[in-house]
């Protein structure tokens, strides 16, 4: 019996609105009754890639006219009084100003609370910090009349930040592929007093980062792969709880925050030397105290090159540490650095990806053999014996360094309660079965903790 079709229309509309727009549209093939049911969804995702074809060579061929006709027809025939979300993704819409105007007006009339306008090109390289040559799309004046917006996503858009005073309810802003001056960012924060989340990705010509204000409600700040003319980052936001940064090494000044979690990735930095090790050390001192910390392969290699190769002074307050690592020899001193720096560590996550960048020139800071760091001359750190209770290893392939570290943890972690090893699903000459067989060797290790539970996935 088809119980779903007999549900009241408002409930069906709610269910369809929980599906991705493309999946909701597929329900039109179920039966005649469902042919137009999907059009009652309150979450619209107009994406030109849904209308693309591939030629005989596999190249994507866009069909802008078919896409434009579909969007205009959908808007013209839609009688729903309220919409929750509207997303328009359309590369280089320079000749389609009318379409953009209609979508913005439609969202305004339907009291859309979550709006996304993406005019970027899917072929752009997010690792190219100079920014694309393509001009940004100038948003029409009607955009600034949208006073009920709670979240806004703008990709490759040009806007007048002084008009953002109308967005009094805005809690979340995500900007990408935009030339962004520090003055623009400061004005945005000043004009959007309710802003709680700010994400800035792949923006360029940024003359530093200034996120300061005693009245800021900002709790989440994400800055990824941006081009800074002056890599100086000043953050003073009393409600900030989560900070994520990826890009080149810069100077951080963080003050007056209640930061709880930081995710740091400096993988776009091209140099590896002692001075950068000192810069990373100073930045980490500024960003902490935080109880959850994620660090990258680059930091594991470079931070021991600085003047303090053994650990942070004073020690960190981190209780959950995530290491994004290739488990390369060059990272082993960095792993030991953070074990020594986190005497209160309770949860350790080792996320292994061997494609992460390894420095071309590297010299061990202390001259020991890498394997000896975890075996004969291993230092047993305070967190290992007294506080570490949970370890998760992701992407395990059974390389010597992976086995050494796993052996070290099992052999010395006296209060460890749970070890989860998630083997890599990568198909290779050895493959998942081999990875699992190596991981299973952990059951034969001498265990320092009587209460240790081991799970191999």
From TrEMBL:
It comes from the Eukaryota. Residues 1-49 form the F-box domain. InterPro entries: F-box-like_dom_sf, F-box_AtFBL13-like, F-box_dom, FBD, FBL13/AtMIF1-like, LRR_At1g61320_AtMIF1, LRR_dom_sf. It holds the Pfam family F-box. This is F-box domain-containing protein. The lineage of its organism: Eukaryota, Viridiplantae, Streptophyta, Embryophyta, Tracheophyta.
């Amino acid at each position: 019996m088809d119980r779903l079709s007999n549900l009241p229309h408002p409930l069906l509309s709610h269910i369809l609105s929980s599906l991705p727009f493309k999946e909701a549209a597929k329900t039109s093939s179920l039966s005649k009754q469902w042919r137009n049911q999907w059009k009652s969804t309150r979450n619209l995702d107009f994406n030109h890639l849904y209308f693309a074809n591939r030629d005989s060579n596999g190249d994507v061929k866009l069909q802008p006219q078919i896409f434009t006709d579909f969007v205009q027809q959908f808007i013209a025939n839609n009688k729903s009084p309220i919409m929750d979300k509207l997303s328009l993704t359309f590369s280089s819409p320079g000749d389609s100003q009318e379409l953009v105007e209609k979508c913005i007006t439609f969202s305004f009339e339907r009291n859309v609370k979550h709006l996304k306008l993406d005019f970027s090109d899917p072929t752009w390289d997010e690792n190219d910090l100079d920014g694309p040559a393509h001009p940004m799309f100038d948003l029409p004046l009607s955009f600034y009349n949208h006073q009920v917006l709670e979240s806004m996503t703008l990709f490759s858009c040009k806007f007048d930040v002084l008009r953002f005073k109308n967005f009094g309810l805005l809690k979340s802003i995500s900007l990408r592929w935009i030339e962004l001056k520090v003055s623009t960012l400061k004005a945005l924060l000043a004009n959007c007093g309710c802003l709680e989340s700010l994400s800035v990705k792949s923006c360029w010509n940024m003359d530093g980062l200034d996120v300061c204000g005693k009245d800021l409600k900002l709790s989440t700040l994400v800055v990824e792969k941006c081009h800074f003319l002056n890599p100086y980052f000043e953050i003073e936001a009393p409600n900030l709880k989560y900070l994520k940064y990826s890009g080149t090494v810069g100077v951080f000044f963080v003050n007056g925050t209640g930061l709880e979690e930081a995710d740091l990735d400096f993988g776009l930095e091209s140099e590896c030397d002692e001075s950068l090790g000192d810069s990373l050390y100073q930045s980490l001192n500024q960003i902490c105290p935080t109880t959850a910390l994620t660090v990258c392969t680059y930091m594991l290699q470079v931070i021991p090159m600085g003047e303090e190769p053994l650990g942070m002074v004073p020690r960190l307050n981190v209780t959950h540490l995530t290491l994004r690592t290739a488990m390369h020899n060059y990272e082993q001193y960095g792993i030991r650095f953070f074990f020594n720096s986190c005497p209160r560590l309770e949860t350790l996550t080792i996320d292994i990806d061997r494609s992460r960048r390894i420095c071309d020139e590297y010299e061990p800071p202390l001259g020991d053999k890498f394997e000896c760091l975890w075996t004969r001359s291993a230092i047993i750190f305070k967190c290992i014996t007294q506080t570490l209770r949970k370890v998760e290893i992701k992407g395990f392939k059974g390389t010597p360094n992976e086995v050494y570290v796993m052996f070290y943890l099992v052999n010395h972690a006296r209060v460890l309660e749970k070890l989860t090893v998630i083997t890599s699903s990568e198909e290779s000459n050895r493959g998942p079965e081999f990875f699992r067989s190596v991981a299973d060797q952990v059951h034969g290790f001498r265990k320092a903790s009587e209460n240790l539970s081991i799970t191999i996935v």
